[in-house]
Amino acid sequence: MQRLLRILLFVSLIVTSCSLAVGGPVQATPSNPYLYPYNQPTSVTFNVNDVTQAWTSWKGALVTANNAGGGGRLRVMGGVDSSSTVSEGQGYGILFASIFDDQTTLDGLWLFTRDYLDALGLMDWHIGSPGQVIGSGAATDGDEDMALGMVNACVKVRKGAWSASPHGLDYCAIATNLINAIYTHEIDKPGSQPLAGLPNNAGDELLPGDMWNLARDYPEGIVNLSYFAPGYYTVFGKFTNNLSVWQAVNARNYAITNLAQGKAGNCSKLVPNWNQYDGDVQVVSWQPQNSGWWSWDAARFAWRVAVDEAWYNTAEAQATMNEVGGFFSSVGINNVQAQYRLDGTSVDGYTGVFFVANAAAAIWAAPSPSAVNCGAATGTLKSTPQQAYDRVVSFTSSSTDYYNGSWRLLALLLMTGNFPNFWELSQGGDTQAPTTPTNLASPSQTSSSINLTWTASTDNVGVTGYDIYRGTTLAGSSTTASFNDTGLTADTLYSYTVRAKDAAGNVSAASAALSVRTSTSTDTQAPTVPTSLASPSQTTTSVNLSWTASTDNVGVTGYDIYRGTALAGSSTTTSFSDTGLTPDTLYSYTVRAKDAAGNVSAASAALSVRTKASGGGSCAVDYTIANQWNNGFQANIKITNNAAAAIQGWTLTWAYANGQQVTSAWNSTCSQIGSTVTCSVPANHWNGTIGANGGSVSFGFQGTHTGVNTNPTVFVLN
Questions:
Q1: What is the pLDDT of residue 25?
Q2: Whole-number Å distance between alpha carbons of 80 and 84
């Protein structure tokens, strides 16, 4: 069920049960907003014929009744190869048929899908011709798109836009069953359920499918954030009257997003193809090198979060789109290439509409993007939403291509206002946002706080509150037309905007920005010096520190921890863990306390701490350059275990000092983030056990260098 390609498919026929005998398709009107084209408000100018033609061309090239089983069944060919079908293709076909009012195609795709539901009620992911199951187990992204398509169909029948299914399908029941199966089997609960998940996790993590075995294969957890569809999940929760559990799923996976974006070296704020539950890269065997890149999986994350921003305008979606959209606008939509490392550098020179479409969706959805200076992003916003949309439209030759054409169509629909939230439309129809807050002002400031006021917004139903942003960060919320932002730095300039919101989740545009400076501090007294600095524990790569709290005439706000003269990090408590260190190495630490006025104490007494030796001297690593040419090289590594016990499953880590990059490996799975290389083999692999008393394993790899190719000197095993 682990796939080499991620796949999409949208299929349908243009003739619909809602078409007129003369004059073309029925269109959405204020009295019936459930028929294509919808043309909801958007920031771009467009020709809806571009959207319709893209759909017609794509469907005509890829949808067939051949080898589908008869009886009106339809299948989408493509994804892994042109002679088979994947669940993602069926899912996107069902979703797009629901949008383009193609009930005949939606029914045909579901009839084929229904024939291949697994024991848990979700579709096996890969079906050959004439109909054999090639890949068993479900894929979450395909499942969730099928479910949303069925929600859309359910709403359309209930609202009279569609007649009942000609095949007797109960769209509402199908949608409910799919949503419940996704939550039961593809969301990792705390503890032992579902069987695919982990027994010791926090809970609510999104699983890639229903038949994985994380406890055996991925004990750190595995999440594909390009499957994360927070806007969908809010709809699922409301549709099944189970909103709180789906809100928890959104919160947990946005948290994993933030962890991934916050990793050292990730200045782009992009996410990798695969993540562990702690946000680290999860290396998978079918993507040994690009697991940690923004690549053919991860890029879809941008469109999925853009849907959440367009439908619900959540603070998490706004912040994420500001970051991702800011990066790609700073690259420039005409410069967007395919894969990116998380340090913002481009991996190759390939340009395709799949990557452009997802970048364009982020640029379009970003409410307040900031310029990004990171790798290919050069510190200036270069592209508007209109320019991003026009770039996607220009890829007309991609309309019949399975993957590029799919994502081109997704971006066109979303950016033109033709990807509606039918569930919310059906719930009373309040889609009108409050008016924009005006007259934002700051009547008073202190050295650590800024007081804000504004003129209240109005709404057709009623304003329920305001979100206040400090730059692109949500500073807080208020139910009145005032807010006090605290914990600030003295004599510092801050920029604020305010958005109004209503009970239906509609959010206004941002107010005009207001720049305010905190006052100069009158508090000049520094905190007392931290005392009793100690290290209660160490590992081969980390040192834990603790100390006695300082006091201050106003209040201590935190501590800065120094490793020698370098700032190792900060803490708001009296403890800190310094990580990423070298085994068997002596480090010196001091701590300084600080307060809200910016006063800093003198340094604590220095503490010297040595990290533990790697393996206690019980292993040896032999690193050999076997061949070298121009800017490339081949290296072999031998690991010898001198201990009395065998090592079952191993991970070897080292860092390069001269910019070397590992490009491919054999007899091991290797990944690289920045200068750090990690190679590992699980215990159940033929090369995964290092025998006792001199047993050894070997592996090799190829890499690139920039002219200097110094061997690494420190290796960490397990």
A1: 40
A2: 7
Give the CA distances from residue 357 to residues 89, 489, 505, in Å, rounded to whole numbers and listed in that order.
Answer: 18, 40, 27
Give the distance from CA 551 to its chain's centroid: 41
Task: Please write the tens of the pLDDT for every residue from 524-556.
Answer: 899 999 999 999 888 878 899 999 999 998 889
Give the least confident one: 80-89, 249-258, 429-438, 544-553.
429-438
Q: Which residues, in sequence order, are CB contacts of 704 under 8 Å at separation 6+?
A: 631, 632, 633, 660, 661, 663
pLDDT value for 617? 56
Question: Cβ(690)–Cβ(650) under 8 Å?
Answer: yes
pLDDT for 28 equals 60
What is the rounded distance in angstroms from the CA atom of residue 140 to the CA atom of residue 135?
Answer: 14
SS3 call for 318: helix
Which among 561, 551, 572, 570 is positioned nearest to 607, based on CA atoms? 561
Q: Rounded distance, CA 344 to CA 332, Å?
A: 13
CB neighbour burial string for 280-296, b if at least 16 within 10 angstroms, e if fewer: bbbbbeebbbbbbbbbb
CB–CB of 517/495 below 8 Å? no
User: Alpha-carbon distance 49 to 58, whole Å?
Assistant: 14
Q: Where are the beta strands (DSSP E) in 392-541?
A: 438-445, 450-455, 463-470, 473-478, 482-485, 493-502, 514-517, 531-538
- Host H or E run for residue 678: strand 676-681
Residue in the structure block whose two tokens are 């009793």: 532
For residues 592 and 559, the answer to whether their CB atoms sit within 8 Å is yes
Strand partners, 690: 647
Helical pair 300-312 and 315-331, crossing angle rounded to 10 deg: 130
Residues 630-689: tens digit of each pLDDT: 788 888 899 988 887 889 999 999 998 888 999 888 889 999 998 899 999 998 888 898
- State the CB neighbour count (10 A cutoff) for residue 616: 11
Burial of 700 (0-12, 13-18, 19+ CB in 10 A): middle
- Mapped onto helix, strand or coil, the DSSP state of residue 651 is strand
- Given a contact cutoff of 8 angstroms between Cβ atoms, the answer to whether 480 and 554 are in contact is no
The DSSP letter of residue 298 is T
Tell me how far apart the alpha carbons of residues 18 and 162 are, in angstroms, rounded to a whole number. 7
Neighbour tally for 345: CB within 10 Å = 13
Count of other CB atoms within 10 angstroms of residue 698: 15
Rounded Cα gap, residues 632 and 12, in angstroms? 49
Question: Residue 182: its pLDDT value, please?
Answer: 98
Question: 200: Cβ–Cβ under 8 A, 6 or more apart, which residues?
Answer: none
Sheet holding 126-127, edge to edge: 85-86, 126-127, 133-135
**Residue among 98, 137, 105, 135 at smallest CA distance from 121:** 137
